Amino acid sequence: MPTPISRDELVALLEHDEVILIEALPVAHYTADHLPGASTSPVP
């Protein structure tokens, strides 16, 4: 089972290239606001 982490913990992992984050959001939502370092996998 996944272990929840905070946004700050996620950002720290991203800054150290320890994870890859893919946000599955509509393009407009991703463009408006996404986590730093996140990639997108657009959904309709």
| Main sheet attributes: strand count, strand direction, barrel closure | 2 strands, parallel
Q: How are the strands ordered across the major sheet?
A: 1-2
Rg, Å, rounded: 11 Å
Question: DSSP strand (E) fraction?
Answer: 5-15%
Arithmetic mean of pLDDT: 85
Distance between the ends: 28 Å
- Element-by-element helix/strand order: HEHE
Report low-confidence residues grouped into runs of 5 or more.
Answer: none
**Number of spatially distinct domains:** 1
Helix content: 25-40%
What overall geometry do the principal axes of the alpha carbons give?
Answer: globular
Descriptive notes:
The structure is a single chain. The chain has 44 residues and is of the alpha+beta class. The chain has one domain. It has 2 helices and 2 strands; from the N terminus they run H-E-H-E. The protein has helices spanning 7-15, 27-32; strands at residues 22-23, 39-40. Strands 1-2 form a two-stranded parallel ribbon. Helix 2 (27-32) links the parallel strand 1 and strand 2 (39-40). The radius of gyration is 11 Å and the shape is globular. It starts with 6 loop residues before the first helix and ends with a strand.
